[in-house]
Each structure stands twice: as structure tokens, then as C-alpha cells.
Amino acid sequence: MPTNFYFNTNAHHGQQNLIEDLIIESIKIYGYDNFYIPRQLVKEDDLFGEDVLSKFDSAYPIEMYVKNVEGFDGEGEFLSKFNLEVRDQITFSIAQRRYQEEIPEGAIKLDEQGDRIERPMEGDLIFFPLTGQLYEIKYVDKQPIFYQMGSLQMYDLRCELFEYSHEIVDTGVKAIDDLAARHTINVLNFQVLLETFKERATGTAVNSAGGVSSVIVNNPGDYSTVPSVTFGAPPAAQKALATSSITGDAVTGATLNNNQFGSGYIPNSTVGVTFSDPETTNRVTATATATISSGSVQNTNITNNGGFYLEPPAVTVSASPTGDDAVITSKIDSNFRVTNLVIASAGSGYTSAPTITIATPNNAIHFRATGTATANSQGNITSLTITDGGKYYENPPTVTIANPPDAVTATGTPVLTGTGVTSVSMSNNGRGYVNVNGTVFNPSVTFSVETFTGSIKLEDNSGLVLENTANTVNRNSTANNQLFESEKTGFIDFTEQNPFSEGTDW
């Protein structure tokens, strides 16, 4: 029996959008702010379809719902013959529309046919701040809610705890990048690093008014020449959002939306605010008629006063058969309406009443509200001021706050005393080191490390490269060369001499 065609609940876009709005709102209430980290393939194996050199260089905040209400799924802590493995599993729910809104164009992957894959992908990562862990997407279920009202609204992302290998994690989000650096399984890389590089200086940035004012040196390091210092980039600036209100036909106020104060504005500056044009309902062209006597215009009658007239409009009178056309001027009142027509010249030769044409009103932009916004010392918008309420508004207009300027990364030069860094001379404090919620963003501080020859040097994606010459002058005092020399027979055999030694004869 066919379904009732009067009640088609599977193709009603209004009902579908309502369900989707309710799902999004529920996730925003009961979910968590996570980071979605797309995977970028660096060197894919065409045979096996794998890429051990995957790169994760961007992270996008988005709300997700955690379906694991009773704890992690999976096998938990699993003891194998190789080692202790943690096999925690978790399932995140994400709204399809919110994924399409938050993940930018550049992060969307293409399939083998070149078509866009507009869904989460297996292999991408999820950073869950509540547990401070990274999870890898193993499977994407696009039908967790099976065609409710005839459409799909959610993805279920089934994830496992991410196992680090050779992946490059450099998202610009300090919590994520630090997590990857602490938990990488490339332990040998760090062991070799200690043997090939002198001790690196470390420091902490001091944030003041959205910029780096100074650096606290935590470890002076070991240098023979002045190193370089690199500061982490400021977070992406965000534009503030606001909503207006009207009283009568004028704008009387504008309020910043909740937690949308923007970031990256120049501290203690005035920011431009633009309001949309008033409605055009009152933008009516005035009309009038004329009467004649003895072939001349005797008087006029305004049939519609119009509106939106910033200045008296021009009045045109149809031509007289004799060429002696009448001349009429107009006047407007304080409400910008045409209230009077003045006959400057009555003309002659009219056999019937001439047609009077009044020019159209001025552009609505002349009646648009204006205002300004003020940024605080951290670069967030804190207040809005209405400088002119405008006129003829029937509904609250749209408020547009100017975009924040481009963020500037701080720069500086380390000051070397003896063989250690004692301070950093700031050449540019930078701008925009503020989170969107107004909290301080402290960037990373990275000092260069001084290398010395005669040891093993680690190079990305090319293995271990042995230098041809030895330098016994700039010897790393913190290296464990003696440990390598005494323990070498336990794991490797060199018939001649130990290449990890401190000698010059290789």
C-alpha cells in the first residue's frame, strides 16, 4: 500500500533542519570542545597505501559529544610479548553541518577521482583536552541515527588511542605539540640528539598587552656563538560579533554576543563598526498633480509625501506646446518628506494639466546608524558605542565589527654571557598573543642548538649520517660517550674502533 502523499515526513526540509538544529544544540550543551586534526600524507606507499611520515600541521576546534558514558571501550591495558599496550577506545559524535562549517576548504581531501571527500577521514586525529590525549579515527559511521526525517545529521567517530611513530605534529596549538613531543616513540632520535648537539637553552615568554615583553631564561645552555631564538606564532585572530537593538526607528544599542569578543585587535584601540542600511519600506517617491487656468499652472496638489528625502528633490513638469514650460521647486520637513511645491514659473500654452514628476529619494546609506568599538589591553573588544542611531529602521540592523589586523610574531636576539644565554633583547614584541576568550596566550620559545662535527648527525627522512671529520675542541660536556663506548659490545660490534668514541681515528 503506498504511503500517504499528504504527509511526507521524509522530504520536509523544515523538519530536517529542526532535527539538525536540535542535535547541534544538544552537542553544544552536553559535549566537549575538542580539536580535529586532519592528516596530511607526506610519502605514501602506493603498494600498501600507508604513510609512516604523515604530517599533522593544523588543528580546528569543534564541539563533540562523548558516547562513552561508562569509561573507555576496548581492551584497556594489554600485556603482550613485546610490551604493555594501552588499547583505549572512544566514540565521538559530531554534527555533519558543524564539520562542514569548521573544517576549511584547504583541509578537505580528494578521492582517486578528484572529488571532494566532505566527511571526517580515517587516520585523522582528535585531541580530547579532558583526558589530554590524542585519538586516531579508525572508522567513521555516517548513519548512527538512521535517516531521521529522511536525512543524516551526525557522524560517529570510533577512535583508538593514537600510537606515535615518525609522524610530524606541528599544529601551532601548544598543548597538542607538547603532547606529541613527550610521547613520541622515537626515543633513539633523542638519544642521538644528546650525542651530536651541545646543550640547548630554554626559556619562557612573558606576555604583556598581547605581546612578548621579555623572556625568562630557564636554562642558559652551552654556546660558543650567539644562538638564534624563535617565538611561537600568535593564535588565529577572530572577529568580534554583536547584535543591535532599536527604539522607534533608530538604533539605540549594540551588545557583544556571548563569548565572541574577538581577539588580535590592537590593544586600547578604537575599531570601526558598520550597521546595515535601514529598510526601504519608507523609501517612497513623492507624487503630485497640477491644475491649470488660462493655459498656465495655477496650483499643485501633493498626493504622496514620500520619504527618505535628505534634501529637496528636483521637480519636472511636462513640456508646454508653446515651449514655455512651468518651473516648480520642492520643500521637505524634518521627517524627510516632501511637504510643499512652489510654482516658480507658471508657464503658458497648456491645453491640459501637465504631469509633475518628483525625483526619487536619496540612498538609504544616508540614514544608516554608525558606531565604534573599543579594544582592551589584551586585544579583545569590550564595548560598543552608538555615535548615530540612524533613521527608518523597522528591525534591528546587522552589526559588523572590523576585522582584527594580522597578528605579528615576536622577534628577539639572545644575549650571551660566557657560554650561556642570560637574557633576550626583544626587537619586536609581536601582537595578538591572546586567546579568543580573553586569556593570555604564552608562545613557545625555542633557541637554536649548536652542532659539532665528529659524531652522528640525525637528518630527517634520511637516517643517520656519519661525519668525516672529528672536532675535539667543541666537545659536548653533557654527552654520554663513555656510556656508548662501554656498552657498545652489548648491541653492536665494530671490528675496528667504536665510531661513538671521542677519538679522531675512525
Number of strands: 31
How many distinct helices? 5
- Find the structural class using helix and strand composition: mainly beta
User: Domains counted in the coordinates: how many?
Assistant: 4
Portion of residues within helices: 10-25%
Strand order of the biggest β-sheet: 1-3-5-10-9-8
User: Major beta sheet, specifics?
Assistant: 6 strands, antiparallel, barrel
- Distance N to C terminus: 89 Å
Q: What characteristic shape results from the CA principal axes?
A: elongated
Mean pLDDT: 78
The fraction of residues in strands falls at 35-45%
User: Which regions are unreliable across 5 or more consecutive residues at pLDDT < 50?
Assistant: 187-196, 453-506
Rg, Å, rounded:
36 Å
Task: Kindly describe this structure.
The chain has 506 residues and is mostly beta strands. It contains five helices and 31 strands. The chain has a six-stranded antiparallel β-barrel.
What does the secondary structure layout of this molecule look like, with pairings?
Layout: H1 13-30, E1 32-37, E2 55-56, E3 60-66, E4 73-79, E5 84-95, H2 96-102, E6 109-110, E7 116-117, E8 125-128, E9 133-141, E10 154-161, E11 168-169, H3 174-183, H4 187-196, E12 202-208, E13 211-219, E14 229-231, E15 242-247, E16 250-256, E17 270-275, E18 287-293, E19 296-304, E20 315-317, E21 327-332, E22 338-345, E23 356-358, E24 370-375, E25 381-388, E26 399-401, E27 411-417, E28 420-428, E29 445-447, E30 456-459, E31 463-466, H5 481-487
Parallel strand pairs: 2-11
Antiparallel strand pairs: 1-3, 1-8, 3-5, 4-5, 5-10, 6-7, 8-9, 9-10, 12-13, 14-29, 15-16, 17-24, 17-26, 18-19, 18-23, 20-23, 21-22, 24-25, 27-28, 30-31
